Amino acid sequence: MIKVEIITIGDELLIGQVIDTNSAWMAGELNKIGFDVQYKTTVGDNEQDILDAFEKAFSRASVVLVTGGIGPTKDDITKHTLCKFFNTRLIFDEKTLETVMEVISGYKKALNELTRNQAYVPENCTVIQNKMGTAPITWFEKNGKILVSMPGVPYEMKWAMNQEIIPRLQAFFPISDSIQHQSFWVKNYPESLLAIYLEMFENELPEHIKLAYLPTSGLIRLRLTGKGADKENLCQQMAEQRKKLLALLKDDIVSEDDNVLENILDKLLKDKGLTLSVAESCTGGKLASLFTAIPGCSQYFLGGVVSYSNEAKQNILGVNASDIEKQGAVSQAVVEQMALGARKIFNSNCSIATSGVAGPDGGTPEKPVGTVWIAVSFKDRLLSRKFLFSKNRESNILRACNTGMMLLLEMVHSK
Amino acid sequence: MIKVEIITIGDELLIGQVIDTNSAWMAGELNKIGFDVQYKTTVGDNEQDILDAFEKAFSRASVVLVTGGIGPTKDDITKHTLCKFFNTRLIFDEKTLETVMEVISGYKKALNELTRNQAYVPENCTVIQNKMGTAPITWFEKNGKILVSMPGVPYEMKWAMNQEIIPRLQAFFPISDSIQHQSFWVKNYPESLLAIYLEMFENELPEHIKLAYLPTSGLIRLRLTGKGADKENLCQQMAEQRKKLLALLKDDIVSEDDNVLENILDKLLKDKGLTLSVAESCTGGKLASLFTAIPGCSQYFLGGVVSYSNEAKQNILGVNASDIEKQGAVSQAVVEQMALGARKIFNSNCSIATSGVAGPDGGTPEKPVGTVWIAVSFKDRLLSRKFLFSKNRESNILRACNTGMMLLLEMVHSK
What we know:
The first copy, chain A, is an alpha/beta fold and about 425 residues long.
């Protein structure tokens, strides 16, 4: 198993102004090719701290991936620190300047002294041209180990990893262990009850296969992870364990897809040539945004209404005013009319509707914070259910989104 | 300055299945009370790796905050590892069992063997009762240093930090340095040009005040950070530097609020008693979801339409079909009609509308990927502008949201 460490650099990560989404994405991609992330470290733009992190990581891992701190501004010192760590100096690189010029011409920004300085690169490294930004990617080899410095801007980092770094890592470490994941989306269980139910199964797992619980908002995602040098053998063992789990959990498994629910639905709706619309009250646009984050979603996603006010529910979605008055906006009658209203105005085959008390305020004894009505509709079917989620707004929004997607997934599957 | 390290524990963080949002939030809160996060480390559910991380962090920092790995399931081993590290053992704690019973009775889940085991706690620590979940919070003191273990579930962690840990840390380290931040939202500059323009300002800054560039999607966020023992003196010096920056950047400063743009608008619209609606094509619900994530937004946010299909633009928002046909959905005429349409159907004072080519596909020579039209409207005013953002879908969506919010912010401010 090739051991990898990720180092993210930047004061903004240590004072809480920026959330590091890079390292999770990187870890996921590395796992797919059988590389194992063992530590992630975040340090500020401070030379000594960066050097310490380099030293520690390089002593433990075979691959050290570094993001951030290579922008054109003065607070970015990663490049100089790399020179110090690898005992080298910066030299001017014409090829890098050409790439920088190409990148900024695409954005019609003028070349200036600072962007020109981006073409200075450490002497004893392989420079990988960054087609997405002005900061060059640098690849160092020492004692059979690799350190790569890349930009912290997420889409630049993703491009660099996919196009350049991962293929090069695979070429550099041709034999590596296999890692296999198998996910299960499970409904109807609180985490601790599921764990008791699966205790014996877990105890009987072979040493190199692990079971993990990933409580996602509204559902539990189980994951079997197997590691081993013999890929075929591992495949077979994973298949055996999967069979056992399927027999234990039966219909409570909503999906075995390793993707998040929006991606599972994305594929399903595309495959079946169906169309979707949403009507959102408590989820407030989050549900639509999950689908529209996926490239190509316009093939099936026709649109949505965020009907936050009662007037919007009536005027746009055609919800009956007297039902709102009598039963309240958070009610079965209203959420069902929202789902049907969305179907009608967007002319879609499927719809999801949400109406609930997201919190932290707005709860009543009858409808406490966390009460959410969800309706899904597909062809001639309409289903609505009431849930009591948590006291936390963020969690309630996510759970309502996931639960709505799960209900639609089951409805479309069952047809 | 009290040095803090954050350790997040969990395999799910190392295989990319979960993004760590906790540590950024914790860092922000710690900064406010003058504590300085120097390192963040993420390790998997592996005893030796956790012990190594404890050792390293405890040797460098005065405070080590640990999240995760204390759930009821077998993969969670933090509690046992803490016992090993502090050379102690688990004992049964009646008070903790009481809390666990209270917590699960609130959620109507049955007490079972696994949740009962949560009441076993390390012997030589202070147990802090967790009112939000079943995993107790444990506080260790050794050689004048502190280690606290808390849940990784975001809302449990936030409750623990705000209610218990931060007050106790302040009591334990009564004298600590002051940290002050001052943010500036700057428009009209690419990062490198702004850096050249501010180079002299930056060079003249006193040693203990730093300038950082936080390129947010669509705008640049500058941040001055000052640290010092003498709070009053620091205040004065920060005010001086702020004055200098205001003189240099003048009208290009959109806001000095340290919040993200949706929170700035949230406050402004509430203060002025205005109402908002949105009409989203390329941002696909993201803009609505930014507002609806904020508790109490229903005071001004009336709703939105995600008009992904042309039919939705026409039928719901009243966009002229011939304008879509002649000029395309990504055009000035269409985005302006979307903004006015949203105003009309939601009966709001303000609106934001977006229509663009988010990518990665769908670009043409005239309208390449990244082309986004944005319109904002407020009272009798309507403004629309065309932007060329990036080639990346995620970035285009965020930049369109931020730019739309910035344009509305300026329009409402200028009234």
